[in-house]
Structure prediction request, 376 residues.
Amino acid sequence: MRANGFVSTQSKYQQRKQVRRRALLLIAIALLMNGCQPSDPALTSLSRPAPKQMAVPPKKEDPAIKIEPGEPVKVEPPAKPNPIPEPPKPPPELKFGIDDMAAVAFEDLMPGPGDWDFNDFVTNFSITERINGEKQVEKITIEFFPRAVGGSYDHKFLLVVNGHKSQPSNIGLLTKPLFEGGADALLSRLDADGRVIGVESPRLDQDIVIFPSTHAALGAPGSNAVINTCPTTSTLASPTCRSLGPQPFLPAQQSVRLEIVLKEPGKNPLNGRTKVDTSKYRMVLHVKETRKDIDIIDVDPKNFDANHYPYGFIIPQSWKWPLEGINIGVAYPLFENYRQYLNERASNPQARVPPEVEKWFLSPRLGSPSPLYSAP
Ligand SMILES: [Ca+2]
Prediction:
């Protein structure tokens, strides 16, 4: 039984094997008849499922390593991450020493005597000197904003940057140039709204005309009327203004911006200077009717009229100039002491005065009616 059982089991095994061979043979024949090759993957798919095709990402080339055919391998160090850039620091600037903005005031009768109201032409101005990393001046920007014309004469307002007043002139004095070396200059004229209405490239070896007409700068071309030196209402303080009657206030119709880019900052070191040197800013008033040129005392410390008054000076923009015809000594009592000091300083550079005298403009005469002009 055991032997028969063995034979029987072996026979069943042989039978199943033959059946499977036949089945595979039939499948192969059928596939061949349908055009498949025995090596065709379709055959393989009969026995086991095909693995899923995985999307293989393209191999990234290492940017730090470049291999060129026929060339030796180049290995570059990995790039350092870019540091966060710091915002650029603005270059330092020097502002005007008295104020962010200042004024210059003139008497226009030369050799005089005038009435010493120092309002014949008044203009505000600002100065900005841009300093480079080596502490040298590399750019100068000056802006002018006219305020008052307290005289019947018309004027040109000039800036002399090379220290040499253009000739012919009653002024032959050489003064310090504004800068050393070459420069490019751009002068922009602006209207009352601050819009640029004209651009010029002035020669720097000649007087630069800031305002061709002081009356026109305040909107009264061809006029010989005083502008912004008598109040808009009646006043008892000035006999001249009383006779003229109330005068309208005229806002400036022009302003000027002058930009000077220095070609040789190395010739213009600060040398420890911490504020603008106003003696280099030679602002000259040219009186058209008399053909006289007038320097300010800040540039020419010996420029006095026959009565020992200066003709013009730089002053903080916040000061109020005297009403028409009012002597500045009446409006500012300490001016007389200051004037004496200026005369003494002309012959003795070591002369000194108390701070309150040097800042006489901080002490106007109080009371009513005021002798000072107040712009509305
Ligand atoms: Ca005047």
Q: What stands out?
A: Residues 93-325 form one domain. Helices lie at 2-33, 41-47, 214-217, 239-244, 328-331, 335-347, 355-358. Residues 1-9, 35-75 have pLDDT under 50 and may be disordered. The radius of gyration is 46 Å.
